[in-house]
Amino acid sequence: LKDHYRKLVEKVKHREQAINSASAQVTDRVKNRQDELRKSLLDMIKVAGMQEKDTLRQWRKIILTNTHPRALWSADEGRPMCWQLDPTEGPSRVRRRLMRGPHTTD
Hints:
Layout: H1 2-67, E1 83-85, E2 98-100
Antiparallel strand pairs: 1-2
């Protein structure tokens, strides 16, 4: 009976080792797969962010190109133009340039 019990215990230990080994392998595979998925997700997020920034930059350029004072869709059509002297001084402290100023009603 002791011999039979000892064989049974050895058999259970052997199966326990096999199960532990298999579970460690499965855990490693799952961990590696999760790491791969996490890395690919972070790469996708980075690319999406860069594309969004590029798209915003392109839209800003389009808006600035089409709405400056001499453009087809100028934003200043309905407002009267006001001018003021540019604070930059030339030779002999002369101010020679005009620049658009804020419209004020005094």
